[in-house]
Structures are given as structure tokens and as C-alpha cells.
Amino acid sequence: MATSPAIEAPRGTSPVAAPSPAPPADLPRGAPRGERPSRSPGPRATLITEISALEQVFASTPRSSPGRVTLARRLAEAYVELEGASSTDKRSAELERDSLRSRSAEAAALKQAQASRSEQVALAARGKAIKYYTLIKDEYPDYAQLDEVLYYLAYEHEQANDHAEARKVYMELKAKRPLSRYIPDVYLAFGERWFEEAQGDPSKMDLAAQAYEQVLGFPPPGNKVYGYACYKLAFIHWNKGEHEKALAAFKKTIDFGIQFAELPGAASLASAARRDIVPVYALKGDPARAYAFFRPLSGDPPSSNQRTFKMMDDLGQSYWDAARYPEALTVYRDLAARDSAGVCAHGVRVDLTSSAIKTGSAPSGADLARALGACPPRP
């Protein structure tokens, strides 16, 4: 199995082994799940005062009033805002706590208490948001934005780790609003859950793949999570040793990022796919055709090959780390012929790789660094 792209080996050394390829934890989804239209954050006390006033108005509003559902929606969104703000407060307090531990145990304990209070506020606010979203779902089945309410309700259940209830609400959304713009996000939620469960139960990986494939049934730009689903499918194929399919899925992710660069996270997904397609190409591709493969995917403008050469250099490193010296030599020779600005560094690698082929052993990282250090910097 290939090593994880999230673990980078120092150049000239053996890579750290990982059980299987895994996408970075901070990978953008292309569109944040659970995202609501937001306003500029104000003082926490102002938000709490607003919620209190809304609660009073809601309590005195007859159930038959046409404005009651709007009040319930405003309350749900206000509690979500409070949940998010309190979660941010908790993370900030925890960071300050960690920085204080080595200097003042007392000050660190105060920050921990602050973090705990913020967590309790966030949990209570989430419970209230679930209450009001559920009220809208149950009492206003013809509400125009019911699909949004159902999606946000399911997401809040996910945040509460109540995945059974989240799935139930997602299924309700599919049944009641089958043409909703949130349907791709529903399939993505299923895929994400099964992908997570597959880390402990590999039999769930096929279910995750099926869910991600369902996401791809809805084209962009209306489907903002299309590129993310492609990216996750690439990792599933990589894990299963289906390298041709993995290359195709990474390529589709890059194409999405280029064509729909204005969508949230699309450019970041393309950058991640450009990085991760390289070790897969090392498993399946032809080193002599690396330039032709990477050039249209690199994002280089017509007058430049800088990103293409970086991808080729990374490919050479992948071959080097796997002791596949003949393939590495092919790539480094190609780079030396194409990249005049880096000809010295590429020449060093050609010489050292040729030596490794003859002797069967690679030079140390220190020797490699010393030889490369003698080259002038790129202009």
C-alpha cells in the first residue's frame, strides 16, 4: 500500500510508513456544511438579549399566527449563531490554556474553566436550535424553506453525534423535497459518515463510494460539493489499489477547481489534488510521459512550466524514496532537459541517481543536501 500523502519524508530519506492513504483532516469541502447566511458578529451579550426578546415574542404568538414560523426560524438561527460563537470561545480559551500551562498552573486552570463554560453554552444553544428546527418540521410541513430547515436540523444532530437521528432527518429531506439543492449535500453526509466508519470497518468503504458517486449525479456549479466528492472518491480508489480510477478522480477534481474556481474551496481542492495525484502516478504512470500528463493539470499559464516542474520533481522524489532509481533517473533527465533554471539541481540528481543504480544504495541525506547546496538559487 502506498504511504500517506499527509506524511512527508525528508528529501533523500526513507518515508515514514502509514497504513493507508488518507486525505488531510483540514481539507476544505468546497462549501462548508451547515453554512447559514451570517451577519457580522456582535457582542455576546447583545445576541443573548436578542434571543431573550425573541423567546418572549414567540411565547406570546398564537400558533395560528402566520408570522410564528418566521419567529421560530429566527430563534433557531440565533441559537446556531450562539453555538458557533461559544464554540469559538471554547477553542480560544483552550489555546490560551495550553500556552499558560508551563508558566502558571493557576492561570491555565482559569482558562480551562472558561472553556468548560463556553462548551456548556454551546451545547445548550445546539439543543435549542434543534428544538426550533424540529418545531418547524413538525408543525409547518408546507414551509417554503423546509428543505433548508431539514438539512440544518440533520447537521445539528451530526454535531451532537446523534448520527441515527441525523440520518433519519436526511432521509426525510430526500422524501419530502427530492428536488432540493441540498440533495447532493445529503449524499455527501452519508459518504462522510461511511468513510469515517470505514477506518474501523473496511466493508463500509464501498458504501462511502456509492454515496460520493451519488453526489456526482448533480452537476456544478449548482452542486458546490462536486469537487470534494471527486477528491474523496480518489482516495477510496487509491486505498483499494485502483490506481487508474484514482488518477481519473484526482484529475476530475483538478478540472473542477480550474473550471469553477469561483466556488468556495475549489482552488484549494485543486491544489490538494495536484499534490496527491503525484504519488498515485508513481504507482501507475509512465515516468517518460510525466510532463505530458502533468502539464495540463498543473495550473501553469501558457508561458510557464514552474508548477509542472514542481510536480515532476515531486514524482522523482516519490521514485527515489521507493528506491525505484531507473524511473527517478528518467524523470530527472527529462527535467534537466526542459528546466534550464534548475539544470544544476537536476544534474546533481541525475548523477546521484545514476550512482545509486550502479551501487544499489542511495547517498545520505546530508550528502544530497551538500551537493544541492553547491547549486546557485533559481532565478
General description of the model:
Helices cover 66% and strands 0% of the residues. It has helices spanning 44-59, 68-100, 105-139, 146-159, 163-176, 183-198, 205-215, 226-239, 243-259, 266-284, 290-294, 306-321, 325-338, 343-359, 365-373. The chain is built from 15 helices and no strands. The chain has 3 domains: 42-177, no CATH class; 181-285, Tetratricopeptide repeat domain (Serine Threonine Protein Phosphatase 5, Tetratricopeptide repeat), CATH 1.25.40.10; 294-379, no CATH class. It is mainly α. Residues 1-19 have low confidence and may be disordered.
Quickly give the structural class: mainly alpha
Give the helix level as a range of percent.
55-70%
Give the overall silhouette.
elongated
Number of helices: 15
Q: Describe the main β-sheet briefly.
A: none
Compute the separation of the termini in Å: 38 Å
Count the domains.
3
Percent range for β-strand residues: under 5%
Mean pLDDT, rounded to whole units?
A: 90
How many E strands? Answer: 0
Give the ordered list of helices and strands: HHHHHHHHHHHHHHH
Measured on Cα atoms, how large is the radius of gyration? Answer: 26 Å
Q: Indicate the low-confidence ranges by residue numbers.
A: 1-19
